[in-house]
Every structure is written in C-alpha cells, then in structure tokens.
Amino acid sequence: MKLPSWRAFRPKSLAARLVVSAAAWCLVVLAIGGFGLSELYRESVLRTLDSDLEVVLDTLAGGVSVEAQGPSLTAPPTDPRYGVAFSGRYWQVALVDSAKTVRSPSLWDEELPLTEPMLVALRAAPGKTRFFNADGPNGQQMRIAAQFVLLKNTQIALIAATDMRPVLANARQFTATLAIALALLGIGLIAAVLLQVRLALAPLARVRGDIADVRRGRRAKLDEDYPTEITPLTTELNALLEHNREVVERARTHVGNLAHALKTPISVLLNEARGEQGRLADLVGRQAEAMSRNVEHYLQRAQAAARAEAIGARTPVKPVIEDIARTLERLYGASKDLDLDVLAATDVVFRGEKQDIEEMIGNLMDNACKYGRSRVVAQLTPPSVAGAPLKIDIEDDGPGLTPEQQELVLKRGTRLDESAPGAGLGLSIVSELARAYGGALHLGRGDLGGLKASLVLPSAD
After folding, report:
1. 132, containing H or E segment
2. Can you state the angle between helices 165-216 and 14-63, rounded to 10 degrees?
3. Residue 392 pLDDT greater than 90, yes or no
4. Which residues pair with 146 in a beta bridge?
5. Is 242 in a helix, a strand, or coil?
6. Most buried pick, 41, 181, 262, 348, via CB within 10 A?
7. How far apart are CA 132 and CA 144, in angstroms?
8. In this structure, what is the dihedral angle of CA atoms 420, 425, 426, 427, given to the nearest 10 degrees?
9. pLDDT of amino acid 38
10. What is the average per-residue pLDDT within 161-171?
C-alpha cells in the first residue's frame, strides 16, 4: 500500500501555509525555550542548595575533633532547624572505619546514608566535596553534601543534608507558571501572525477585486499602485488583457473578411442562376440562397462568440428593451391594436456587447408582436444576489407553441423558414447567441396564454 505524499497534506491556501508554518515554528521555539528555562531554574536552585550545604560542611570541618570515645563537635551549626526532629536540615560526623558518629538532633534516631557508591566517590577525592541524591529519614528526598577529611590519621566523613522536596515543588510551580505564560505568549504570537498575514495578503485581495472589476467591465486594466512583489503579476495580467483584446479584434477582422470573400462568389452564382432557365439554374439558385443564409447565420454566430469572449463589455438592459418597444409599437401600431408593456422596476447591466443583447431581445419581442393578438409583456428581473444572472421574460397572447414545436424551433441547424407553424423568427439564433454568453433561452406557456420566452444572461455588478 502506497502512503500518500506529504505534499498531499499541505494546505492550498497561502495564508494557511504561512500561519501554520509560523505557528509551528513559534510553538517549537517556545517549547524549547520553556524547557531550557525550566532546567536552568532547577539547576540554579540546586546550586544555591549546594552552596548552603558547603557552608555547613565548612562549619563542621572547623569544629570537629577526634576523642577516644569517637568524634566530637565543639561548634555545631547554629540553625535552629537542626534541633527540630525531621525538620529537613541535618548534619552528621562519622568515623569511616567505625560506627561511631555524632549527628544533629533533627535526625532523632536515624542516620544519613553512606552507600558503597558514595564511599567510593569520596575515597577517590579526599578533601573534596561530593553531592548526592538519596532517600533520607522519614521518607524525605535528600540532597547530600559529603566530604572525607583526615584528622590524627583518622578518616572522618562530614555530611550535610537537606530535604529537596520544597525546592523541587518551587521548581514545579515555576515550570507551571512558565508554561502558562508561554502558552499565552504563543497565543499572542499566533494572533500577531494572523494579523500580519492578513495585512500582508491584503493586496492580493485588492488585486482579486480589481480583476473582478475588469471582468465586469468596470475598468479596462489593473492600474492601481500595487506592492513591488505583486507588480510583475499585475503587469503580466495587463499584458494578457491587451492580448485578449487584440485576439478578439483580429477575429472580428477575419470574420468580416471571410464574409466579404464568400458573399461575392455567392452573389455571382445567384445572379448567373437568375439569368438562366432550366432545372440546373433553379438548383444552383436554391443552393446559392441556402449557402448565403448559412454563411450569414454562422458568421454572425462567430462574431457573437468573439464578442462574448471580450473582457469588459457592459450594457444597461432597460434602455435596450424600451428602445426596441418604441420601435415595434410604431411598426405594428398601424396593422393591429397591440398593447406592449415593459415591466422593469430597476435597471441591470448585461455583461456583454450591446448589439448582441439588442439582437436577442429584438428577435424575441418582434416574434411576440408578430404572433401576439393584442398584448405583449416584456419583464426584466434583476439578479437575486450579486453575480447571479439576470432574466428577461417576453410573452404574448398568441397561439403559442406545443412542447414539440418548442423543441423543434430551438434545435441547432433548423432553418428559420422551416420552423413549425406558429414559430417566431430568430428563436434558434437567440438560443445560440445566449449560449455563447453562457446563458440560455427557455420556452413555455405564459400567463397570457401564448408563448413565453425566458432569456437568462450573465449580469455585471
């Protein structure tokens, strides 16, 4: 079984990477620092304890003497704790080669231990103080300072001891306090890292917003004063935007050139066919007309697709609908009593070229006016949230279309003059143009009883 690579666990967010790495480094440094400070404090306490014990040994060495009955001490340490049983402060003077000892009253009937390893260490360096940890009277954890001295050819062991438990308790208390302080410091450092990362990456959020403005058509390029590290990125993005505009412009030019190049030969064929009689002339004429329609249709779609890819195009929708409504009222007003209503409480902006939305809405409204009996309604619905698509509903009170007819008129490749009865002109063109912008055209039965065309298009904030 293959284990996943460590790269799979790396966060994808730059902010998360910076925060996690900085937080991990802070925690490691604080843990090492806390452990080091705790050990330094413990060692400092033990050195102070050892210094006090050495002072006691010096006092014992200055007052010890050897009598026939054993060792004696003329000037014992004056600390009153040496007179209290099991107080935690003890001293002892013993002859190495016998069991004769003199000790502090605090030991009561106990003796300080002299184990074999301790004796070996003391014999190896007579006159030098050695320090040991051992269990003492009453179960106390002792710190022992011992020294061998030679007096009247007699080896004497001088021993001073103290209970380490209070000192170790203080060390533990210091460690706990230090841990709390370092934890609070760590939390503060992580918060500072979060703030620092937020401030450091704020220009990236500004760049993202500026790019969104470019996409929505609010600006043509990134022209803000960005930090030095981001400037190369914005420069390349501006170059990419300029390249995109050049590509779209070249596409439009080539499409126009192709249209002119094809229209002339087709026109020649049509003219020649019309000047001749016979089956061949009729066939050539029909096919040339079909070619002309197809060339015009697909060249328009290519132009629309190129415009849809352009960055920065914005078109207010309400004025377009109102202008088309006024034109259609004049056009159909003489032939039928038509009531054309435009319902648009607020204006929204279409993210695309004006001529494309004019073509889409114009085809739909012209179709509704042509097949509607007395009333046509065009309703503009703004996006529910920022960035959501806008919606334009156009319905009439005409005969409408059956579901089969609706599918047929939107089918790609269907010629407009071959649509099912009742179909409006331009529906397949509108559907293709809407898809070029990432939108859609939906047909159904409206509240007025006729056809309802719902056009969904991208909006610009």
Report:
1. strand 130-135
2. 170
3. yes
4. 130, 159
5. helix
6. 348
7. 5
8. -40
9. 92
10. 90
| Three-state secondary-structure class, residue 236 | helix
Q: Is 453 helix (H, G, I), strand (E, B) or coil?
A: strand
> Which H/E stretch holds residue 424?
none
In contact, 348 and 317? CB cutoff 8 Å:
yes
DSSP assigned state of 412: T
What 202-207 contacts at long range (C-beta under 8 Å, 24+ apart), as own/partner pairs, is: 203/227, 203/230, 204/14, 204/230, 207/233, 207/234
First-to-last alpha carbon distance for the chain, in angstroms, is 51
Main-chain dihedrals φ then ψ at residue 149, nearest 5 degrees: -125, 150
Largest Cα–Cα distance of the chain, in whole Å? 159
Host H or E run for residue 456 = strand 451-457
Question: What pLDDT band is residue 425 in, cutting at 50, 70 and 90?
Answer: very low
Q: Which pLDDT band, with edges at 50, 70 and 90, does 356 fall under?
A: confident
**Phi and psi dihedrals of 137, rounded to 5?**
-65, 150
Which stretches of 309-447 are DSSP H helices?
Answer: 317-332, 354-371, 403-409, 427-436
DSSP, collapsed to helix, strand or coil, labels residue 270 as: helix
